[in-house]
Design brief:
The protein has helices at about 15-25, 35-45, 65-75, 90-100, 110-140, 150-165, 180-190, 210-215, 235, 255-265, 290-295, 300-310, 325-340, 350-355, 365-375, 410-425, 430-440, 440-450; strands at about 5-10, 30-35, 55, 80-85, 105, 170-175, 200-205, 240-245, 265-270, 275-280, 280-285, 310-315, 345, 380-385. The chain has about 475 residues and is of the alpha/beta class. It has three domains: about 5-135, Response regulator (Rossmann fold, 3-Layer(aba) Sandwich), CATH 3.40.50.2300; about 150-315, Rossmann fold (3-Layer(aba) Sandwich), CATH 3.40.50; about 320-450, Helicase, Ruva Protein, domain 3. It is found in: Cytoplasm.
Length: about 475
């Protein structure tokens, strides 16, 4: 049972005492009233302690219970009210329901009956509060309020994002891990006509095919071992809104085919079901892979590629928008200084120089992690170089990878290999930490290590967490 504060209003002392003892045994906070006047006085004064539910008798000595209910609902419209009534006054209870009472119980009532009614009322109230909060969040036009930039290069990206947001076209966001692809996807949604509906996202690389399919399409009871209930998938939950498919380049051929059907036919079949469900969804996909190359080499469906790639948004890596490093770092510093309860005034000039000189293979995600660490370790009012990991890097650690020179024309695969290798070295081959910086799943990182034949340097322990 949910733990909450309950108000009990009944003129019979025995009933009040019985109910108070019962609910306190269930760890409720309980306050009792012998008449409607004292109850209303408490609620009008706003000193009811933000009660979660009211259990009220229909018949009161000083005031009709229906009148009490009317006034309670005027003062606290969202307060769930359960009325108690004697068998001969059922009509009054029905009137109470019409006026907004959640339910009624007749005296004498079994202990299990009243506990069940109160429990259900509280669960419904919690659901309504969560739904209201979600609607308010979705209604805010400035939900993606942490897109920080000053560079002309990223301004072009942001202006394109706002330009295409008003259309209903599917969008493909390309960029290295950690460049903010989900943030841009959110900006597309919250500046679109769909802003009042849900924005949902899923990391396609983090799940097995079976689990990914279940998460996307949902399943019916008995569809597979362990499917003890019917579960809606993200496609159904995102109906009318936007679904962000992160790491779309890691989706298997089988799931690619099913996604293509959804985009083309605007319907899908849950796992284990036989009847299709219609949906209206805008798809925003993202990847750090060269999808055009994946198509040429037969690893990604050409028809799905063109369905997703109606509009392409290319995100520049942080090393190509160095003007944004310090504004972003200061934004993150404000965020994390509040969390760690420190009054940090900013980043010292020396620390700013270190941050700007760094190559940022993990892009904005890595910068945020570095600043969070610095906020925790900072001893004064400013972040200084000694709390930055790149400043304290061991002498034997690999040097930063320099940006490719104009005469050093190399493939994206080589760049990716070098980035992964450098992050692994920097974290002491802490694979979970490296995967977080790179913005990929641990499973994907393990696959990349094998694919690029990356070897563990002697004397450095591997981390399997």
């Amino acid at each position: 049972m949910l733990k909450a504060k309950i108000l009990i209003c009944d003129d019979e002392e025995g009933i009040r005492r019985y109910l108070q003892k019962m609910f306190q045994a269930k760890e409720f906070e309980v306050e009792t009233f012998a008449d409607g006047t004292s109850l209303l006085a408490r609620i009008e004064a706003g000193t009811d302690g933000d009660a979660d539910i009211l259990l009220q008798d229909v018949r009161m000595p000083d005031m009709d219970g229906i009148e009490v209910l009317k006034r309670v609902k005027k003062l606290r419209p969202s307060l769930p009210v359960v009325v108690m009534t004697a068998f001969g006054t059922i009509d009054s209870a029905v009137d109470a329901i019409k006026l907004g009472a959640y339910d009624y119980v007749t005296k004498p009532f079994p202990r299990e009956k009243i506990l069940g009614v109160i429990d259900n009322a509280l669960e419904l109230d919690l659901l309504m509060k969560e739904n209201k909060a979600l609607k308010e969040e979705l209604a805010r036009p400035d939900t993606p309020d942490n897109i920080i930039f000053t560079s002309a290069k990223f301004r072009e990206v942001y202006e394109l994002t706002l330009q295409v947001a008003g259309s209903d076209a599917n969008i493909l966001i390309l960029g290295e891990s950690g460049t903010g692809k989900e943030l841009i996807a959110g900006a597309v949604h919250y500046n679109s006509p769909r802003r009042g509906r849900r924005f949902l996202s899923i990391n396609c690389a983090a799940l097995s095919d079976t689990l990914l399919e279940s998460q996307l399409f949902g399943h019916v009871r008995g569809a597979f071992t362990g499917a003890i209930t019917t579960q809606k998938g993200l496609l159904e939950e995102a109906d009318g809104g936007t679904l962000f498919l992160d790491e779309i380049g890691d989706v298997s051929a089988a799931v690619q085919a099913k996604l293509l059907r959804v985009i083309q036919e605007r319907d899908f079949i849950p796992v284990g079901a036989t009847k299709a469900k219609n949906v209206d969804i805008r798809f925003v996909a993202a990847t750090n892979k060269d999808l055009a190359k994946e198509v040429r080499e037969g690893r990604f469906r050409e028809d799905l590629y063109y369905r997703l790639n109606v509009i392409t948004i290319n995100l520049p890596p942080l090393r190509e928008r160095t003007e944004d490093i310090i504004p972003l770092a200061e934004h993150f510093l404000q965020k994390y200084s509040r969390r760690v309860r420190k009054e940090l005034k900013g980043i010292s000039p020396e620390a700013a120089q270190v941050l700007q000189a760094y190559h940022w293979p993990g892009n904005v995600r890595e910068l945020e992690n570095v600043v969070e660490r610095a906020a925790i370790l900072a001893r004064g009012e400013f972040v200084t170089p000694d709390v930055l990991p790149m400043y304290r890097q061991a002498a034997g650690a690999p040097a930063p990878i320099a940006p490719p020179k104009e005469d050093r024309l190399i493939s994206l695969e080589v760049i990716e290999k070098e980035h992964i290798e450098r992050v692994l070295h920097q974290t002491g081959w802490h694979k979970s930490r490296s995967a977080e910086i790179l913005g990929i799943s641990r499973k994907t990182l393990d696959r990349k290590i094998v694919e690029y034949a990356l070897t563990l340097p002697g004397g450095v322990p591997a981390d399997d967490e």
